[in-house]
Amino acid sequence: MTLPQHLDPEHHHRLMESIQDPVNLKYLRRFMTDFAKDPSKITDKQAGWLYEQGFLPEKIELYDFDTYDIALYLSDVQRWMTREVNGEYSIVFNNKILFTQVFRNFCKVAPITAIWRNGRIIPYDDVWERCVTGQLDEPRKFVIKPLGGGGGGNVYFVQVGRKSAMIESNEPGRERFTLPVERLGDIFIGAKVPFMVTEFIYQGEFTKRLYPLTVNTVRMLIVRDPETLLPHVVRTVQRMGTASSYPIDNFSLGGLSAEIDIETGVLGPAVAAAGPHKGPRWDHHPNTGEPIAGQVVPKWSTVVEDMKSLFLQVPYISYCGFDLILMDDDVVVLEGNSYSQVRLFQMHRPLLPDPIYTKVLSHNGIFQK
Amino acid sequence: MSMFVPGGVRPPGLFPAEPRVIYQTKRKNLTHEGRIGRLDRTETLNAFRDFSHAFHAHRPRLEPELGGYLHNHGFLPDKGALFGLSPELIDPENPDEHSDWLGQYLSDFQAAILPLANGRYAPAGSNRLFQWRLQRRVLPLAPLVGSRQSGRVIRHGATEGAILSRGMNTGREGLPAWHDALPGAGTGDDDDRVYIGVPCGQEAVEVTRIAVLHDPQAKLPFVLGAALLTGPLDALDAPGSAMECRRIDPETGMAGASRRFERGAVAAPETVDENSRIVPGWWPAVTAVLSGLRQLPVWAVIQLDVIDTAEGPMVVDLTDRLDVAALQLDGPVMGAEAAIRFVKEFGV
Amino acid sequence: MSTKSTLPLKIDHKSYIKTLTGDDKYLAWKQFSDAFWNSETLRSGARSEFLFRRGFLRDKWVIYGFDNNDPEYFLSDFQAAQINQANGIYANVFQDRMLLCHTLAGYCTVPEIHALRGLDAEEVSLTQAWHGHRTEAKGPAMEVMIQPLLAGPRGKAAAVRIKNGRFEGIGKSGDMELLSNIVRDWSKASRVPYLFTQNLRQGAFMQELYPDTQNRLSVILGRNLDNWDPEVIAATMRIGSARSGGNLDMVQGGLSAPVDVDTGLLGQVAQVDIDTGLSFLEEHPDTGTRIAGMTVPNWDEIRSELLRIMDESSYMRIALLDFTILEDGKLGLLGPSQLDLSAVQVHQPLLRKKVFAETMRKLTL
Questions:
Q1: Most buried of A240, B310, C127, C275, CB within 10 angstroms?
Q2: CA–CA separation, C240 vs C269, rounded Å?
Q3: pLDDT value, residue A63
Q4: Is the predicted pLDDT of residue A179 greater than 60, yes or no?
């Protein structure tokens, strides 16, 4: 693939040399320390080539540098620098309460049941009280996760009945346990950060079929053109859980990612970045055999249009990787990632051929023209 | 009790009215990983970038486990084998203990930012011409014969012995061998130089290398560590040069076992002589150095090379870059109380 | 609120100002200094120096009655300009008018946001109605506020009426293109984005206070930093007058009546005249409407809604907000409070409020 006109073959080198402000120097430091301990097997020559251009050694395996020029890929240093695109407004995504307060105006979000903070529960309605007093009419499912930060750590799935609650989590040593409902608050014992309790969202048939044991979310990368202020969908992937990522679909923990064609909603083959399924491109789910490549996301064009009109309403945000749960008739915006991981996109193909995307990056000093 | 200060009274106000704190440190945390994690200024972050470039330029690359461990604690690849540092020493049950122990070693990155503690004098700390002019009245310096700046040679005096030609800037051919790995580095013929008269030629001589820090509590300089190096004067710090080195106990002036090592090589030092011995001229050297530094208390960090001559000690080099390798072949130097006070005071 | 228990919390402004460090604080001090020397009152003398060294603007000698009152219980103008820093990384949430509207839309009526004029970017239509006015020169009649996106000293506010693609107001009339160009110039001049929003119409109660201006219920919300419980620290009704026009600042002639946070009862109306000093009235000086003794309708509901805002926005430590009360008796958001705290402190110095003083102290503001 020849380089598009807006890409200089040396832009990675020039960016690495030009970084001078403390904020970006800190990202460079992060890159350098991660680089030093990356266990990927690479040659000395590859190490020099990647290091000078801001890519971690793991990318030798994950990206297809034989087919695509490295200049077409967003580097690891650039990806960290995307943290600054939303500036002070990244709090809208980093604080899940604020996220809910804002986005519930424009789309469906997971409703907050309660917040746990400073040792006390702040109920948002009467559901928590009914849970702990055994007054639920029927069993209900909740998700409990830390208020701040991204990543999938410390997530609890709680099935609450009249007498007891069954909890599953990805916390080592507490994978599955039960509590009497009146002691539901024990989940928070020893917690040092605030937690949020939200209603569990049941996914629609399409994504459930892909892998029924996890909620399989769509990650959609949207940016705002700095001149027209209009939204632009850069890339979309369908994530799927696997036996190794259970109970979530986290890509870093062995989940799969399949690109969704933005125009048609057709899924491509899936890849994994970690775990037993890393390496091949999967046309079928490796655990269930369910077809992936060629499947069409139902009502896809509506999903894209709805997300664009949502993004139009929040102009203080310029860059976001949204996590969506596709229901049968609707979409729930689960969360937004202010500096989305990009390897789940770029393992399929590089991001920088997109000129609007690079315009956003260069507007924010992340891309050297 | 008033303290006797050889050579006179410290001029008031010279030390350290201006801010020299490199960054705000949580004073309990003196570990290398904490130090690197807290960097927040362009100057120090750029120093880390230079360090990291040098580390990653090293070939062959270390295994990621050892490489990550050394790099992320601020040590260049040679220090693993040289000091016997390894991630295998970490007790998984008590990793903090290892961090505290490792924190007693002066790291290569720490040595690179240490000169910032010299405050407004920091830019001149590695300039030999400046050092010679500033210190000539208070230290027994080898005579400055001449200098060359921007191609123009200036004669400063005459000498009877050999003339040692050195780069003007100790930072380059001085301690951090990794500087040579940086783009644009090198000691070409066009470099600015100083010429110093010394009573020896190209042969190997014994040089006493003394690292001195400022003790913020006593407000006096103290000897952080010292080593007796044997090698030609102009090759003590050159990358790849091999030399013998003994650690000197500053309290007694006794030099320990002699170890042979090669600058920058990933190899354990070889012991060539187990026996300790007295360092000739140690006490006159230390007295001369400390009394001189007390009279002109400009430097919070300085390292001096002294040779023993018939007329007494002679300082043949001065730099703000401490010799991480030679000073610590037989153990760390930053564990002393005064060194900890220094790090707390200046945040390096 | 007990004043005795707060006695140890009084602030030595002079020492505080001596301890300032950091670029932000120096910039804030410079801004305060500019404002201080630009003001017309108390041109010189010991009182002027007294105020400057403590971070108070010169008009405060009269407004706060420092002949009789201890200045160390009053939040200084310098401190007031920094209150929002108490919210740390969340400082923008209640300062950015757009984000504020989005955040509070679940609790009260917020103005509809019609369009945004980005800094060095195009104007974006955010409602169908605005789009219609701009592209097809047709659409419903609307009353629109044009304000800088961020609350603060930069930029200006104006109200216009729009009908069928034409506007009227700011001393002009014309098509939407003209309005867009005018606001683009404002944006370029003050380096801030501008927002076009619905101009909420005040209800009968607010109208009765003074009919010719948009009167404001200014509230200060805080929380007990030990148990995180929310609290309405102060509520003040700011009322226009013939002298003030739309600007409700006290020195411009704006009036201020305290609202009892437990009962919603309005107290005496404070009025400032720099020449004659501070006076307290039972009635509006222009209309004769008796204000002292009126009660804010639905106060219990309003108060619990204010507390809910703070309780659920648990990331905020302090919030200064302006509301109107709509015809249906509910809160309508006007925006972030202008930081004219004299309207609050003429009735009671803020540092006598325990939760407020503790917040200021803990955050070393």
A1: A240
A2: 11
A3: 97
A4: yes
Q: How many helices (H) and strands (E) does chain B have?
A: 11, 12
Question: Model pTM?
Answer: 0.86
Please tell me the distance from the alpha carbon of residue C14 to that of residue C52, in angstroms, as a whole number: 9
Measure the CA–CA gap between C110 and C108, rounded to whole angstroms: 6
Judgement on whether residues A318 and A234 belong to the same structural domain of the protein: yes
For residues A212 and A132, state if they share a domain: no
Query: Where in chain C are all domains bearing CATH 3.30.470?
Result: 86-107+202-362
Q: What is the mean pLDDT of chain A?
A: 92
Say if A and C touch: at least 3 Cβ pairs within 8 Å: yes
Q: Which chain B residues are within 8 Å of A33, Cβ to Cβ?
A: 36, 68, 71-72
| Residue type for position B20 | R
Residue in chain A nearest C230 by alpha carbon: A122
Query: Which among B32, B43, B49, B66 is the top mutation candidate for probing chain A, defined by the most A β-carbons within 10 Å of its own β-carbon?
Result: B49
Query: pLDDT tens digits for B277-314?
Result: 999 999 999 999 999 999 988 899 999 999 999 999 99
Q: Domain B119-138+201-346, what architecture? A: 2-Layer Sandwich (3.30)
Contact C58, C78 (CB under 8 A): no
Residues of A with Cβ-Cβ distance to B49 under 8 angstroms:
25, 28-29, 32
User: Which of A27, A37, A45, A58 would best serve as a mutation to test chain B binding (most B beta carbons within 10 A)?
Assistant: A37
Q: How far is A89 from chain B (nearest CA, A)?
A: 22
Q: In this complex, do A105 and C228 lie within 8 Å of one another by their Cβ atoms? A: no
Any CB–CB contact under 8 A between A14 and chain B? no
Residue range B305-347, pLDDT digits in tens: 999 999 999 999 999 999 999 999 999 999 888 998 898 888 7
Q: Are both A210 and A150 inside the same structural domain?
A: no
**Does the pLDDT at position B26 exceed 70?**
no
What is the bridge-based pairing of β-strands C269-273 and C277-281? Answer: antiparallel
Residue A115 near residue A195, CB atoms below 8 Å:
yes
Task: Tell me, rounded to whole angstroms, the distance of Cα C122 from its chain centroid.
Answer: 29
CATH architecture of C86-107+202-362: 2-Layer Sandwich (3.30)
Identify the pLDDT of residue A149. Answer: 58
C-chain residues near A315 (CB < 8 A): 98, 116, 118, 124
